[in-house]
Amino acid sequence: xxxxxxxxxxxxxxxxxxxxxxxxxxxxxxxxxxxxxxxxxxxxxxxxxxxxxxxxxxxxxxxxxxxxxxxxxxxxxxxxxxxxxxxxxxxxxxxxxxxxxxxxxxxxxxxxxxxxxxxxxxxxxxxxxxxxxxxxxxxxxxxxxxxxxxxxxxxxxxxxxxxxxxxxxxxxxxxxxxxxxxxxxxxxxxxxxxxxxxxxxxxxxxxxxxxxxxxxxxxxxxxxxxxxxxxxxxxxxxxxxxxxxxxxxxxxxxxxxxxxxxxxxxxxxxxxxxxxxxxxxxxxxxxxxxxxxxxxxxxxxxxxxxxxxxxxxxxxxxxxxxxxxxxxxxxxxxxxxxxxxxxxxxxxxxxxxxxxxxxxxxxxxxxxxxxxxxxxxxxxxxxxxxxxxxxxxxxxxxxxxxxxxxxxxxxxxxxx
Length: 416
Fold this sequence. Notes:
Layout: H1 2-23, H2 25-28, H3 31-39, H4 41-50, E1 53-55, E2 58-60, H5 62-81, H6 84-107, H7 124-154, H8 163-190, H9 195-221, H10 234-242, H11 244-251, H12 265-281, E3 286-293, H13 296-303, H14 305-322, E4 328-333, E5 336-342, H15 346-361, E6 374-381, H16 388-404, E7 410-415
Parallel strand pairs: 6-7
Antiparallel strand pairs: 1-2, 3-5, 3-6, 4-5
């Protein structure tokens, strides 16, 4: 009984500390969180290899039950609140560091003479065992993390109709796989008996239960409340999420935003000024609309990045479908869009902006029934020459005012 109690105490200490470090990422950066995960990797593997306690259902290692299970849940938290590419980075760092450790340990064999210290003699055989287990454990961690993310994304409302069930089922399945695979390595290297297999599995199911409850509590009461994303083809999920950073780099080099299908920011910077100049030279008014999806970060946080991408695509489709044939729509960055509209007076621009706002508000943005709204800032040039940067800046001022006044609205001013 005392053994189970101590495991629970360790799990609570682990989760509270890691969650506090993670929550402080906006102030200190995510690097501290990643370093804390990495620092404990050796202790986690060491305890999983040599430190076991007897419980009624088998022998259990705190390193595996508390630390590894907790680490996997922390990677899920990292994915939910950041993205899959951020999850990859610490795993790659751990894998490279462990391989480097093994390589450097092998070099130790070439030292001819080793100084004997009182009471100490280096145990290179043990170092070899630890190196093998750490590399094996980190390779499993990489597979586990991918599987955990895929399962979390795929367990929709029909399978797991609450966030707790979704997290628990994902963790339980992955920890079952990991327990079997790590035990095989541990048995081959250290000869660990089979009661560590089923004892560790039962303990990990308990850890999955406890950590899932703690994670749901943290997400609901400390971070923004998450919700369930809609279904996504299995093979697409991880690729789309993992290569988000490369996708954003691609946006800077192409004329078309590959996610939404509208012109990208590079195109805006290339054509905005000529479009404005042409209208004013022909003595026709030109309006610029700055459009921002309200609370888009919350959509990503609550529904996942897959649904966030679908929202972006459907908002772009709703906006493009409500503009006139000669108007130009650009994805300016993130959740922001810009429209340039020729021969449109200030009053008519407001009418058009209201039409855009209403179109988005009345659109189902994802198959899960997610809806969003937009705030729009409008500026119009009618006579004097005007720089695109100035129009953009003025529209942004009115966009900020629309957000300040409650969002899902249009604000504007005529530029003479």
